[in-house]
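2024-03-11 09:14:02 DEBUG pipeline.ingest accepted 1 chain
2024-03-11 09:14:02 DEBUG pipeline.ingest length=177
2024-03-11 09:14:03 DEBUG pipeline.predict start
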Amino acid sequence: MNYLLRGIGVVTAVGMISLLSFSLPSPSGEARGDGGSDTLPKLTHKNWQQECASCHIAYAPAFLPKASWRRVMGGLDQHFGENASLDPVTQADILRFLEANAADAGTSRMGNRVMRDIGPKDAPLRVTETRWFVRKHDEVSRAVWSRKAVGSAANCAACHRQAEQGVFDEDTVNIPK
């Protein structure tokens, strides 16, 4: 009986530690575990927010694998038709952050879902090119993407009003006319 009680205590302690570690922030600044099914953990990284969000939403690292982020950051001089070059120190800092929180880093459920549809050697350059994105938006017509208030599939915040906070739940979508 004494062994049984001790065993239950160990199992309970391990379970509590697991639950606590699931919600503690990781060294990369991302909280472990997501909120809802389409909610990303709140990320904070000064250079990523300052540099990437100066032109568009700072895309969640969990939307692409590490290899994709390397491609994006390695081609900033021709970043989707713009020169978004950064000084080498800032560029390396942002890349480290993106890699630490990428879809294949195992730090978020959203990233795990994105990776289900990406091959181990695949490195899509755009979030909108991922099979996960295409599947999640298959009911959205080309006409919606081309609306002036939307602009393109890359403009997450046009429909996902809480995209900046990492919320992409379908319940919060508001497609502009």
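2024-03-11 09:14:41 DEBUG pipeline.report The CA atoms of residues 162 and 168 lie 7 Å apart.
2024-03-11 09:14:41 DEBUG pipeline.predict end
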